[in-house]
Amino acid sequence: MAEAAAPGDSTGAQDSSVARRRRWTLFLGTAGLVVVLDQLTKVGVDSLFALASRSIPAGQPGGPTELVGEYIRIAKTYNDGAIFGLFDTTATLMALLTLGVVAGLVLYVWRKGAEVGSLVIGGLGLVLGGAIGNLIDRVRLGYVIDFVDMGVGDARWYAWNIADAAVFLGIVALFAAALLGDRAGPKTGPASGAT
After folding, report:
1. Burial of 84 (0-12, 13-18, 19+ CB in 10 A)
2. Per-residue pLDDT tens over the stretch 148-193
3. Helices (H) and strands (E) in the chain, counts
4. How far, in Å, are 45, 161, 166 from residue 75 at the CA level?
5. What does the domain layout of the chain look like in residue ranges?
6. CA 54, 147, 40 angle in degrees (round to 5)?
7. pLDDT for 141
8. DSSP per-residue codes, 130-176
9. Which pLDDT tens digit goes with each residue over 61-116?
């Protein structure tokens, strides 16, 4: 004769199911928000601004448009390299690499999502959204639209977009979680009620 389940067993399974749903909501919700913001800003910048060279003074034809003085400017470029334009490569190769990253992130959250906390899941969601945002450009256009130009004088950072920023912030979140700790699940100890 089969034994009846203990009264607390179904509650634990329900709690686990709810926690898993929350993690997927955070992961996919963060990624979705990044993709929407990234694509909206790229479409807006692409339709409103001409291509710009950062070597031409701001305000002149073909030069950047100042937003906050020389510190933050719009300098639209078409980038067929990787994040911040760091590596010169083809859009097809970058698209394939990005698909691998996307698959790896989803697989990781599928297998380990219940074991990590919100900081890790949120960080992974930022990376996923950034990867998908730039992947959409590569598939649709063959390049990525970068447009934020930051710096002082001739000391400028690489041009970037919302997707690049999300990937960067996601990596920072993952480093923070590694340094500070970010584990899921209830704390156990003397106060947990175990006898």
Report:
1. middle
2. 999 998 888 889 999 999 999 999 999 999 898 876 544 444 444 4
3. 4, 4
4. 9, 11, 19
5. 19-180
6. 165
7. 92
8. HHHHHHHHHHHHSSEEEEEEEEETTEEPPPB-HHHHHHHHHHHHHHH
9. 999 999 999 999 999 999 876 554 455 556 667 778 878 888 888 888 888 877 88
Q: Would you call 109 helix, strand, or coil by DSSP? A: helix
31 sits in which H/E element: helix 9-48
In residues, how long is the chain? Answer: 195
Answer yes or no: pTM beyond 0.85: no
3-state class (DSSP) for residue 108: helix
Residue 108: CA count within 13 A, CB half-sphere: 15
Q: Among all residues, which ones are annotated catalytic? A: 146, 164
